[in-house]
Fold this sequence. Notes:
The chain has helices spanning 5-16, 27-68, 76-87, 91-100, 109-127, 137-144, and strands at 129-132, 158-161, 167-170. It is mainly alpha-helical.
Amino acid sequence: MPKDLVKVQKQIKKKRGAISSLHENSRDAKRLRRAGARSDKLEKLAAARAKALQPYLRRISFLQSAAQEATEPFTVESMQALIEIYLDRDSSELSTIESERRPGRPTSTRENLLKQRIQAEANEYNSGYWMPDMENVHTLDRLKEWNEQWTSLGTLNFVRIARNGTRHSSSFPPKGKS
Length: 178
C-alpha cells in the first residue's frame, strides 16, 4: 500500500473519481490524512537536517574560497591559520553588540548565540577541528571543484586539526571525535 501523498491521491482518484466527494471519516479520507501527515513529518525532518548541516557547509565553503587561491598543498600551520581566521569571523559583530548594550542591561539573544557558537567552535578546535585534508593534492583539487552540496563531500578526505598542532584522519560525515 503506498504511503506517499501523491501516490495515495492518485490511487484514490483512479478508484473513486473526484477526491472532494469523500466522506469525512471514510477509509480513503483516513489514508489521505495519514499520507499528508507522513509527508509533513518528512519535510520537517529534512528541514531540520539541512539546518543542522549549515555550519559545516559554511565552514567548507570558506575553506574552498581559501583553496581557490592556493597553488600548492597547505601545511598544518597554514591550515591552523585558516581555522583561526574562520573562528575570528564573528568577533567584530560581537564587540559591536557588546559596546552598544547599555550598562546594567541583560545580554541580547543574538549576543548569547554568538558567544555560544564561538565557545563551541573553540572547544572543537581544542579537541580537533573537522575540515578537508588540504595537505593532500587530490583532496585540494576536489575541494576547488566542490559544488557546495553536502552529498558531494563524500569524495573528499577529512582530518581533525587540533590547536596544539596534532593532525588525525577523520571520516565523512563528522561523528563526534572521529
